[in-house]
Amino acid sequence: MVNRKELNPERSPEAAFGARLRSAREECGWTQDQLGERMGFSGRHISGVETANKPPTRRLAACADAALGTGDQFERAWRELRHGVLLEGFTEYAGYEARAAEIRLFEIGIIPGLLQTPAYAQALAHGDVRRGTITSEQADERIAVLAERQATLVRHRPPTMLVVMDESCIRRPVGGAKVMDHQLKRLVEFASLPNTMMQIAPYDIGERRPFNLPINLLTLYDRSMVAYAESQAQGHLEREPTFVLSALSAYHQLQAESLSQTASVDLVHQARKGTP
């Protein structure tokens, strides 16, 4: 295509929105003028949004959803952009996650989001509200985004999910005894699914634990891989094969050092009973 500008979704939330809009438009086989005509905007305006030279508006996002048949995908993305619900890089990661063939997760301190019950997720989000780090509206958005991510996993060909949790995930009380009991029960149910594997990395793994931060590794249907990691303030999506393969090797080491799924489920049952 002549004068096609390469997009970098990681440059900013606006760039991620624009890249998603271009991808959805091209899947329909439409030009910018054709999409603009369906949305009530000029092709030049669509181009500006795709290249992050013009900020998306709520009306544009809603019109994009209506024209492209994407439900409320773009309106939700606009709300995320406006309210800063998600860390930089996460929006693009979530797009990959929704179409991954295999998902590998490692988490410390909290249950991984894809395995959280609504009550557990609400307790975490409302804790952030009480600390003043997010607003109530942002908490609601965060919970809605998580529910949307979880819903994408319930499909005709669900991904294989391999989850390793530090023991702290099941020991840290969140939301009170009832919330934790339901959450731990959810983990046992997750482990029983045919496309899942759940393991606990016990405290006594000590220095043999290869990761000091949570990490997500995705394998797509074309066998390419991406990695995503977060600090307290920033998320980073990595596609560079050398880094991703190194992280995958470390993940395999983590699995080898962790409890088997049977032993992990037994540990979760012990946690439900309140035994150390």
Distance between the terminal alpha carbons, to the nearest Å?
Answer: 62 Å
Strand neighbour order, sheet with most strands? 3-2-1-4-5-6
| Share of residues in helices | 40-55%
Number of alpha- plus pi-helical segments? 12
- Rg: 20 Å
Low-confidence stretches: none
Per CATH, the class of the largest domain reads: Alpha Beta
At CATH level 3, the topology of the largest domain is Endonuclease, Chain A
CATH architecture of the largest domain: 2-Layer Sandwich
Largest sheet: 6 strands, mixed
Number of strands: 6
Please state roughly what percent of the residues sit in beta strands, choosing from under 5%, 5-15%, 15-25%, 25-35%, 35-45% or over 45%. Answer: 5-15%
Structure description:
- By secondary structure, this protein is an alpha/beta fold.
- The protein has helices spanning 13-27, 32-39, 43-50, 58-68, 73-83, 90-97, 118-131, 136-152, 168-171, 177-191, 241-257, 261-273, and strands at 100-107, 160-166, 196-201, 215-220, 225-230, 235-238.
- It has 2 domains: 9-83, Orthogonal Bundle (434 Repressor (Amino-terminal Domain)), CATH 1.10.260.40; 90-114 and 149-273, 2-Layer Sandwich (Endonuclease, Chain A).
- A 6-stranded mixed sheet has the order 3-2-1-4-5-6, sandwiched between helices.
- A hairpin with a 4-residue loop joins strand 5 (225-230) and strand 6 (235-238).
- The longest helix has 17 residues, at 136-152.
